[in-house]
Design brief:
- The longest helix has 49 residues.
- Helix 4 runs antiparallel to helix 6.
- The protein is of the alpha/beta class.
- The strands form 2 sheets. The chain has a 5-stranded parallel beta sheet, sandwiched between helices. The protein has a 4-stranded antiparallel beta sheet with strand order 2-1-4-5, with helices on one face.
């Protein structure tokens, strides 16, 4: 299940992930204020303990109060600054991280959009969702739980060693030695116990999301065929692997904490061993002894941020690699690039009026298309012309490439040969330009978990309720909408509250609102029975063909001859076999 090789480095990310990590780290102008506030807060905590230790010890000698005034003010100042700068550090660093996270998320979606939907057909949806949501969210830990703690604790530990060294060089040396040993031993112990589990957590979360999504989406089918318990067993296996990985990560964190605590104790004992013989010599007094003995406790409290930061780094690195591989660095050749018109400066009349004399709406000559990674083309050598008012039935066995052609015509897939839109080669246009002319009603239309109104409005936001009701009447849904309570009736998740035929009609109403000159309807009767299917096809063709619109109806079942202008039969290209129903 894990994507990670046990021989790969624990520390260095793959090259593809480095750009993601650079995007996750806020720019210096935003990150430095939080870093500075964190350093001041942590340094104030160490200085507070040092000042308090000196004040209590010196006060025990009962000197005149004037000799304690500075220390009293210092304790108050460090106590206040520790809390104030801690709050400031949280405020500025989290603001910077969240702002950068928004930019990162937009950047990831910008890389993803050129692939959708054809380039993601083989991607497991649950794992992709986990990568784009959970793993992207985890990247905010890079500045907050990796860079910030490492920089803060490292600087404060260095300053503390220097401070103790100025009081007693031997104590400074022992403190530095204990910090290095505790850091190295803690990191190695944690890596040995939990590194593999930490790197596997993100892939296991994706696998669990896949299993849950499959069970939820197919619950009725799994129950009907008695396969639900087997799928639940698979889900339990993945969940158990995730639980054990999380447990091993917690074990590693516990060992790290224990090593840091031992290091703090060892630093204190070694400071006593070094300081007691020096007491009373060279101006080294009792208050100074208290400082060099107690300061290591505060230093190790700050230094304790380093092992969790290293643990967080392994998880962040794993998430960065998963995000980087969610989409390929280069768009596959079968997916058209969203680019401007070519360098020749084509000014294509993509909005030419339907039915303009001599110019077909669509013209295909020797068109071929392939899916990403496929060994053979799904469509080859197809020639077809669509004029205004045409109602063409595209027939063919299942697997002949009918849906592939539909995906190609709306430029989800690239093509070979010639494909002209209003007389202009489609490759000279951006895919979005082509989709202003050619619309697609898919075999399983996507309905959002919202009202009927909202499912229609995204096709034309300016439409009012009267226009929506009119277009619903054109597709035969006006009476049904009235029975459901009007446009505010909800359709459920992915249209769960409507039938297959009603979903097709809602999708058709959306297409009519968008007013595409060419409309492709892919297998509209796939989810309805025969009687309703015939009526649905008749309603679709009569409604869609209004106003000179060209309609390409894809269906492997016969269509009444009086509804269409001609039938085109698609066969599988050489090298591929079309499956026959």
């Amino acid at each position: 299940m894990s994507e990670f090789s046990p021989n790969r480095s624990t520390w260095l990310p793959a090259p593809a992930a480095r750009s993601i990590l650079r995007l996750a780290q806020p720019p210096a102008r935003r990150s430095l204020p939080g870093l500075a506030a964190g350093v001041v807060s942590a340094a104030s905590a160490v200085a507070l303990l040092a000042c308090s230790a000196w004040l209590i010890t010196r006060a025990a000698e009962m000197p005149p109060i004037m000799f304690l005034g500075t220390a009293v003010v210092g304790v108050r100042a460090f106590a206040l600054s520790r809390s104030a700068f801690r709050y400031l550090e949280r405020l500025t660093s989290h603001d910077a991280a969240f702002r950068q996270l928004g930019a990162l998320r937009l950047g990831i979606f910008a890389r993803l959009l050129p692939l959708a939907p054809a380039g993601l057909s083989e991607t497991r949806r649950g794992d992709l969702l986990t990568r784009l949501v959970r793993d992207v969210d985890d990247l905010q830990d890079f500045p907050l739980r990796v860079v910030q703690p490492l920089a803060t604790s490292g600087l404060v530990a260095l300053l503390s060693v220097i401070g103790v060294w100025t009081v007693l060089p031997a104590a400074g040396l022992t403190l530095a030695l204990c910090l290095v040993v505790a850091g190295v031993v803690g990191a190695l112990a944690s890596a040995a116990l939990a590194a593999r589990s930490e790197r596997a957590l993100a892939p296991l979360r994706g696998a669990l999301a896949d299993e849950v999504l499959e069970v939820v989406e197919n619950l009725d089918v799994l129950t009907a065929f008695g396969a639900l318990e087997a799928r639940l067993d698979d889900l339990r296996v993945v969940e158990d692997r995730l639980r054990r990985a999380a447990l091993r990560r917690s074990t590693g964190a516990g060992v790290q904490a224990a090593v840091i605590s031992l290091g703090a104790g060892a630093a204190t004992v070694l400071a006593l061993i070094a300081a007691i013989p020096a007491l009373g010599t060279g101006g080294f007094s009792g208050p100074a002894l208290a400082v060099v003995v107690l300061v290591p406790m505060a230093v190790f409290e700050v230094f304790g941020m380093i092992p969790p930061a290293l643990s967080a780094w392994r998880q962040v690195r794993s998430s960065a690699e998963r995000v980087a591989t969610a989409v390929p660095e280069q768009v596959p050749a079968e997916i058209p690039a969203e680019a401007a018109l070519d360098a020749a400066g084509v000014t294509a009349p993509v909005t030419a009026a339907p039915g303009e004399p001599g110019i077909p709406l669509l013209e295909l000559t020797g068109l071929g298309a392939s899916w990403p990674g496929a060994l053979a083309p799904a469509v080859a050598g197809l020639s077809l012309r669509l004029d205004a008012g045409d109602r063409v039935h595209l027939a063919g066995a299942s697997g002949a490439g009918k849906t592939t052609l539909a995906q190609t015509l709306v430029r989800f897939l690239d093509y070979t040969g010639s494909y002209r839109v209003n007389g202009v080669e489609a490759s000279d246009l951006t895919p979005s330009d082509v989709r202003q002319v050619v619309g697609l009603c898919e075999q399983r239309p996507w309905l959002f978990d919202d009202t009927i109104r909202q499912n229609l409005l995204f096709a034309r936001e300016s439409a009012d309720d009267a226009e929506l009701l009119t277009v619903l009447d054109r597709v035969g849904l006006s009476e049904w909408v009235g029975q459901r309570g009007g446009l505010d009736a909800r359709v459920g998740e992915r249209g769960a509250l409507v039938s297959g035929g009603q979903a097709q009609r809602i999708a058709l109403a959306r297409a009519l609102l968008a007013d595409f000159p060419v409309l492709i309807v892919d297998e509209p009767t796939a989810n309805v029975d025969t009687g309703l299917g015939d009526r649905l096809v008749r309603d679709i063709l009569s409604a869609a063909a209004d106003g000179g619109r060209a309609v390409l109806l894809i269906s492997h079942t016969p269509v009444p001859a009086d509804l269409i202008t001609r039938t085109v039969t698609l066969t599988a290209p050489a090298g591929r076999k079309a499956s026959v129903l």
